C-alpha cells in the first residue's frame, strides 16, 4: 500500500492551480503563479516549487520546497545548502494515511538539512518525522519557531 504513493513535481498550469484552491493555505504564492500564467510571464507547464500526490486525477496532498543557498544559511554547521519546506498539507479526507509522511520522506531523500515553520497543532506530526526545534535566536527567528531536520553528519549552528 505505502509503495503505491508517488510524489511528483507539480507543473504550473491551469489544472494544477485550480486544484490548489482546495487547500487551506492558498494565498499570494498561488495567486502570483496564476497571474504570471495569465499574463504570459511564465509558460504553461513551467516548473513550480510544489510537489504533490495524486489519487487518480485529484491532487490530495502537496508541499513547497525551496533550496536555500549556503551563503544564506544561518541554521547549520558548516553553512550549507538546505531545503525550506512549507505548505505541507493533506486534504482532510486523506489524512492519517501516510501521505504527509510520504512527502516529508521525499524531502529528506535529497539528503540536505530541512527547515520548516510548523502550523499550530502539527507538532506531534513533526516530532514523529524526526524534526526538532531550532535553538531560538531572536534576530534570525523573530516570531517564528522553526523546526529542523538534519541528515547524518550535519550539526545545528551554535547560536
Ligand atoms: C499534519 C499533516 C500534514 C499530516 O499528514 P497526514 O497524512 O495526515 O499524516 P500521516 O498519515 O503521514 O502521519 C504520519 C505519522 O504522524 C502521525 N501524526 C499525524 N498527524 C499528527 C498530529 N497532528 N499529531 C501527532 N501525530 C500525528 C500519524 O499518526 C502517523 O504516525 P504513525 O506512523 O505512528 O501511524 C496533515 O494532517 C495536515 O495537512 N493537516 C493540516 C492541518 C493540521 O496541521 N492539523 C494538525 C492536526 S489538528
TrEMBL record:
Family annotation (InterPro entries): Acyl_CoA_acyltransferase (IPR016181), GNAT_dom (IPR000182), YlbP (IPR017274)
Gene Ontology terms for molecular function: acyltransferase activity, transferring groups other than amino-acyl groups
Domain spans labelled N-acetyltransferase: 10-155
Enzyme Commission (EC) number: 2.3.1.-
Pfam families: Acetyltransf_1
Keyword annotations from UniProtKB, A to Z: Acyltransferase, Transferase
Parts of the chain that traverse the membrane: none
Top-rank taxon, per record: Bacteria
Top-level class of the enzyme under EC nomenclature: transferase
Family annotation (Gene3D superfamilies): 3.40.630.30
Official protein name in the record: Uncharacterized N-acetyltransferase SAMN04488072_10950
